[in-house]
Amino acid sequence: MSLSTAGSVRCVHTLTAATTSLVVDVSSGVPRVLHWGARLDDDPAHEGFLASLSDTQFGADGLPGQHRYPAVLPEQSAGWMGTPGLEGHRDGTAFSTRFVATGHEVSGRPDEGQVLVSRAVDEAVQLALTTTVELSAEGVARLRATLTNTAESGTFTVNAMRLALPVPDEAQEILDFTGRHLRERTPQRHPFRAGTHVREGRRGRTGSDAGFLLAAGTTDFGFRRGEVWAVHTAWSGNHVTFAELGLNGLRLVGGGEVLLPGEVTLEPGDTYTTPWLYAVHGNGLDAVAAAFHRHLRARATHPTSPRPVVLNTWEAVYFDHDLDTLIELATLGAKVGAERFVLDDGWFLGRRDDRKGLGDWQVDPGVWPQGLHPLVDAVRSVGMQFGLWFEPEMVNDDSELARAHPEWILGPGDGRLPLAGRHQHVLNLAVPEAFEHVLESISALIAEYRIDYIKWDHNRDLVEAGDRRTGEAKVHAQTLAAYALMDELRRRHPRLEIESCSSGGGRVDLEVLQRTDRVWASDCIDPLERQRIQRWTGLLLPAEMIGSHVGAPTAHTTDRTHSLAFRAATALFGHFGIEWDLRGASPEELEELGEWVALYKQERELLHSGTAVHCDYPDDAYWAHGVVSQDRRRALFTFVTLDTSAAAQQGRIRLPALDPDLAYRVEPVPLSAGALVRTRSGKPSWWLDRPVISGRALEAVGLQGPMLYPEQALVFRLVADRPTRQRS
What we know:
ten-stranded antiparallel sheet, TIM Barrel, Beta-galactosidase, Chain A, domain 5, alpha+beta, alpha-galactosidase activity, 40 strands, 13 helices, eight-stranded parallel barrel
């Protein structure tokens, strides 16, 4: 709407969906967000009120005056002295912009998804800017900007473009993530201090140590408490996410792409578009996660078929590919209920270890004289889909491809190669011939074997990633080329599903997930580590998109030994799979595993459509989490002990998100009874008695926590039995 404020005409629009409102002022150049947070009512008076606040000028001795609300692409010309939205120049000039609004459009309806597109120009530096602000029906906001060089001649070099959103003073703490291979998404938390908290990823992929999600919230916010404002930079190359508290007291959170020198130069008419910056507001982290999950599930490309039980061969056989062994593994997998067989690394030309063969995407005739057909036929004969591992963006020095085309390897352009990682380098997919080679090789195999699924790996960082022929930096171009390769394979093979794997969970972001159907959360399937990794990965992704496998009794990556009950109960709350040499499992283990697979199949509709919830229990030795159905009539929960507790007796654990006016029957899942064998005080009374308890009491009072020994899990259902009282 347009309104008159303090003698000037303001153009302010409110985008509203779910529990969120965005109030955006498009009056002057780049849009300014006046409110991002709790839903406002439909009274347009709030727009005038916020517009009047936005006119307030901040300033102090030696500091320029500026608006209370910086633009989503902050400009120094408007008085913003913090991190600039745009950094660029024309041969050292035209370094500062002052965009003037030229028009805008709003489409969509409240609660159905709305889009605000704003246009602006700076005639002096000859640039045009288009800014898009969206709010989905699920309450997920996202922003991006497109910059165009409008000059008739001359290049504009883009050094950086970053988008940002304001958060209020109540945002006193920051939560984001770090990690490493086998320990992805490790949380770190600290006060929202003066200055800039910057999380840059310069690995050429999202990275195991990526910030992942940056959440600013009220003091001591948790899963079920506190107000939270969270952002995610959706980009699989070099990227940045940041939080900033300026001298003027203004707080911003934002992100964008990190560009290497010279990666984006705009000739006349050329454009550059930033990655999407996703943003969600909610009361507690569970609310933030629920909005992301609803948004992803609403996509036209979201997988709709029941997520099949995966049998992956990696930790079962590694590179030791033998037809009889693999057929036996497939047969055992089918007997316990597996539905998809994935042949991992080691099937292609010369690939007996990780030192050779990458790039030579041909079935090795020395191991497979009849090709993969005998294995594929055997897998399909026992009722399973067939999947295959690739690492399309990589090449070994010891490969036919590298020997034929060393110029296709990414490098700094001075004749040397970057430091090797895992005995491999990165193939420059920005070279059209290299792109076509990989595309045609993989596409031919998908067609020949009717491959249902690709595990798409990416096992090294992009170090000194340039074009060896020209010396130009190529991370930006490589990222776009990887997307284009996925897009074209999906176009040619519409039934194909793709898993994003990158040394485990090193490429988990919402842009690669526009093209993939799940992520491999970590190469570590030790259930103790996986409890932590899956807990935090679930802030962004719903369970059906997080690959989670039952491994061998002793984990290959940590050498810790766990019960099958703990391993399976952990895998249950994801996209369930098996990565274990079942030939060494006992008949009793195979029988128990089959029961867990049956439980997953029975509950996967709930697990993969319900609302994920977590209990804010004060003792970190105990976790409780679960999934509640959309109608709140059913739930599946688990109690997990990660460690010993300082307390002699566990307290009651409150179970959230239930219908307070329904009574629920507590139904222990018998398969997890094995986890109760090692207790200090026997089974809790509710496990034996199967009581009926109101949702109100379960949330306000809770269940007595069982005194499990460490590294065990207990699974139980809540099933609506009856209303607790007559509903009005």
